Amino acid sequence: MTKTFIPKDNLEQRKWQVIDANGVVLGRLAVQIANVLRGRNKAIYTPHLDTGDFVVVINAEKVVVTGKKEDEKTYMFYSGWRGGESYRKLKKLRETKPEWIIWHAVKGMLPHNRMGNKLITKLKIYAGPNHPHAAQNPSPLTPAK
Questions:
Q1: Strands of 139-140's sheet, edge to edge?
Q2: I need a labelling partner for 102 at 20 to 30 A (CA). Which of 12, 29, 73, 124 fits?
Q3: What is the pLDDT of residues 86-135, one digit of tens each?
Q4: Cα(141)–Cα(55) distance, rounded to whole angstroms?
Q5: Global pTM value
Q6: Contacts of residue 34, Cβ cutoff 8 Å, sequence gap at least 6
Q7: Coil, strand or helix: which one is 50?
Q8: Using an 8 Å Cβ cutoff, are 7 and 46 in contact?
Q9: Domains of the chain from N-terminus onward
């Protein structure tokens, strides 16, 4: 009878990885980020435990979408009040909050429970090429094109 391997939850073993989103398709980037956050790229992956790494995304404003999504994709927001629905186009959000576009795509690919809420805090997104996490020595992660 084999025993199930349960990895230790050591925060010291977590690595930092940086991804350049310049010219990368949004969905493919979000899948790769979600897999690294969950730890699916490691041999010690366990579905109900957090074994993933930290991810820093730079150049979020230069992420690419395919087809007519740039002009036609809309995001719905709800204030909680009657008649409180509002809609914003992807093009408008890219001008105001380019980090939110990637954050929203990755959040939808993580588990919808407390673990997913914990995993999304390990994602750091920046619109430009600079980030304040140089002290963590992030290793570059090549995005899938």
A1: 123-125, 54-58, 16-20, 139-140
A2: 12
A3: 999 999 999 999 999 999 999 999 999 999 999 999 999 999 999 999 99
A4: 9
A5: 0.92
A6: 106, 109, 110
A7: coil
A8: yes
A9: 15-66+98-128 (3.90.1180.10)
